[in-house]
Every structure is written in structure tokens, then in C-alpha cells.
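Protein modeling request. Please complete all fields; requests missing the sequence field cannot be processed.
Requester role: graduate student
Desired output: 3D structure, C-alpha cell encoding
Chains: 1
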Amino acid sequence: MWHSLTWEATSVCRSVRRCVTARGPERYTTVQSLKTAGAALVAWALAGWWWDAPMALLAPWTALFLVQSTVYRSLLSALQQFVVVVAGTLLAAGGGVLLQNTMAAMAVVLPLTVLLGNYTRFGSQGLYAPTAALFVLVYESYAGFDILHRLLETLLGATIGVCVNALVLPPVHTDRVRRLRSQLPRDCATLLHEVADGIEGVYDDGRVRGWYDRALRLTDVVAELRDARRWSDESFRFNPGHKLRRTVVPPPSADWDLTWDRITEHIRAAIRTLNDATTLPDCVPGILSPLLRSAGDVLDPGSADDRDRALNEMTAAHRRLTAVLADGRYETTPALGALALDTQRLLDDLTTFADARDVPQLRHQA
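Delivered output (366 residues):
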């Protein structure tokens, strides 16, 4: 118990330190949290203190939930929430006026508003349809004046939440894209070097499966990169940050994302072939090892200056591998043919990678 508390306290202190000293998720979370609290305070100051509105709580309550992770999402959530609040409020007011009984009105209105809230176009904001209906029915506020105030205060809170998110350090999500683009070549190179060192020695099925699991995780990183790219693109939509003179570092180009998809797939395929292979000619490990080591050197951000040399060495090693495939002294097996094909595809994409002008810049983005 004491160990868990100590670990938790250490983690919190580490997060606080990172929030103060460096950009990252900790600082982003802190900024967004302060903006959320600030939006609620501004909404209350206007609705409760200055306007003295009869239902002032609705303004800060709405503002709290509309400081979203992107400006676009704030705008979309504001529109969704206002529509469902209007619908829930009007349905509840109509049910209360017609039935003149709170319990009966709830029995009729709540199923309708819950169904409305589950409409996929409303997303997570659909919950506010039955919530708005409950507020109306519980407090029996059916009069036109009360309904108008509810809608105006909801609109005020939504406007404040969106404006705070858009005008005060509007969120931009590019760091994750840069981090993953820096991580991919480093992780690929590390795995290729480890496989190259391992296949020349004694290795068993368990070790190859471990390599394969790591290769699968590389393809997961590519999937994360695609998700981060979508998140980054969304964060620039309707974002006035550049017009407010905020310095926003653009994410790395998406031109080579597809190449990374292919590279990680070829690495995975080659290791899977090694895992499935039952027999290989005795000379193949001695050829495959320098081939994979050179492939790792091409991808290694720390070896960018030697990339052409590594690519030439990989090409020469692949020629030796295909020569074994064509040599009648060795038995041609499906595994040997698959390895030649997988490494040829990897070589083709690494040639494209090495020719890319922006590849050396990845070393400075780590």
C-alpha cells in the first residue's frame, strides 16, 4: 500500500515537472483544464452576477463541456448540444402543459428524449436531451419566459465555451505526429539490428516469435500515426491560432506515411517467414544477417550520413541471396523464395526512403 502511494506521488510530481519544463500532454491537459474552469467562471459572471438570470447555472454548466480538444470539435459539440437542449426543453414543456402531471409527463417525454439522444448524429451530446427535459419537468418551469431563459443561457454558455477554446491558446495536435514519425525509423532500425545479430547465432522459435511480436507493434505505430494525422488535421480546422500570431509548428509531411506502412509490413513479413521456415540453406543466415543489418543502418536516424553506403551493402547482400535461390546446389524452398521476395520489397521501399529529401530531418525531430 505504502509502495503504491509512493509510486503515485512520484508519478504526479514527475508530471507536474514535465508540465512546467517541456511541451507535451501534461502541459496540454493543464492548459485545457484551466481554460475549461475559466470559461465556466466567465459564463457565471455574465449570467449569474451581471445578468442575474433566473437559471444562470445553465450557462457555466454548458461552457464546462464545450472546451473540447479541438476548435472544430467545440463548434460541432456546441451545435449538437444546443439542438438537443432545445428539443428536450420543448418536448418537456409541451408534455408538462398537456398532461399537467409531472410523473405522467416524465413517462411520455423521457423515452422520447432518450431515443432522440441516441441518434448518432448527436454523438456524446445526445445525453443532454433527457437531461434538459428533466430540468424542465422537475422544476415545472413550463412558462414561455422560463423556456426562453433556459435557451438563452444555454446559448450564452455554448458561445463562451467555444470562444475561450478558439481564442485562448487554441489547441493544436502536432506533437504526437512528430513523435511517431521520429519513433518509427528508430524502432525499425533497432529491431532489424537485433534480428541481424540473432540469426547468425543460436536462436529458437520463442526468440523469433518475440521478434515477430515487435514487428506487429511497428505496424500498430503506423496505425497510431494515421490516427494522430487525422487528429492533427482536425485541430487546424476553424483554428484562428495563426491569425492570432500564435507560433504553430506544422506536422511533418504526410507524403511518406504510405511508405512507412509498406516498410513495417515488409519487416513483419520477413520475420514471419523466418518464424515459419523449417529449413534454410546453411549459407542463408550469413547472407541475411548483413542484409538486415544494412537495412537497419538505412533507417537508423543516427546513420543518415552513411545511408548510401548501407543501401549499397544491402543491395549486394540481396544479390547474394537471390544467387542462392538460383543455385542448383541448394534446395529451393518456399521460405527461401519468400525471404528473397520480402527483402526485395523492403529494398525497393528503402531506396525510396533514402532518396527522400526530408528523411534526414527526422533526426532533429526526435
